[in-house]
Amino acid sequence: MARKKIALIGAGMIGGTLAHIAAQKELGDVVLFDIAEGIPEGKGLDIAESSPIDGYDSRLKGTQDYKDIAGADVCIVTAGVARKPGMSRDDLLGINLKVMKSVGEGIKAHAPNALVICITNPLDAMVWALQKFSGLPENKVLGMAGILDSARFRYFLAEEFDVSVESVTAFVLGGHGDTMVPLVRYSTVAGIPLPDLVEMGWTSQDKIDAIVERTRKGGGEIVGLLKTGSAYYAPAASAIQMAESYIKDKKLVVPCAAKLSGQYGLKDLYVGVPIVLGADGCERIVEVKFNPDEKEMFDNSVAAVKELMEACVKLDPSLG
Length: 320
Ligand code: A3D
Hints:
Oligomer: single chain
CATH class of the largest domain: Alpha Beta
Order of helices and strands: EHEHHEEHEHEHEEEHHHHEEEH
Shape: globular
Bound molecules: 3-acetylpyridine adenine dinucleotide
Strand content: 15-25%
Mean pLDDT: 96
Number of strands: 12
């Protein structure tokens, strides 16, 4: 069986990390595309030179030519600008919308059968625009955010309970931003929901509330520490999990930004919801039952996503 081909559009901090993990896992051969000359070539060569030590045979190539992504099975998009301290994800909108247009056209021309995973912020609006610009089927264009936000939530909870991260499951839904919705009722330690753990005296409601707040601001916490950019190790690991579930048809149930077509009473927008991710891309959207508080938080988050979409349409009326 021929090797899979993974195209990384954007070879910055996340793109380089994606290339390293994808190669180490032998998910396929890796093409790094970037407009910055030398960066994708240099990162590709550096990673390839580690392959004899780590023992993997993935081939890596850096390029400025979209022709080199031809026939890619997966395209992971990080092209654009990342947040600097004091910048919100929304400040990135104007710059990154133009980038999504050129990336969408490049993918449409050279890799129309790929699964496309968008990471560029502001995530929900950018993946929505990327799907429109590329014209690829909705089930094959997804946004990465929920896995990362849930991983942060899981990590903080595992720390609080002093248990393995593997024993903690958590769902963070909604748009990727300060309005995201960490679902406490659906988050568990070995299947025991958090509200039960509060009753059992494992933690307090105040501590859970503080962890929820830290999760919502998890991206900003890293930006504040790094000062020169945003998180890249955990975002890359999250997107690789999505690519792996697609390539291996694992059908993981994971929160991703997916295009809704009636689910949750919403249409024609991307927002974070649990999906089954397999060989057909988004194979099913899971409709979680919300209580009134959760519904209010989800609605607020959707309203924030809609605002960004409207701002996109103002900047590029072809999206309307
Ligand atoms: P960075 O290291 O700046 O890399 C971005 C790369 O994109 C640079 O190498 C640029 O040269 C390249 N680029 C710019 N324009 C184009 C273009 N038109 N075509 C191809 N390449 C281009 O950023 P990063 O890797 O740290 O972050 C990438 C994106 O991910 C940013 O928008 C971040 O805000 C976003 N991000 C999202 C999450 C989510 O959870 C959704 C988390 C972290 C970062």
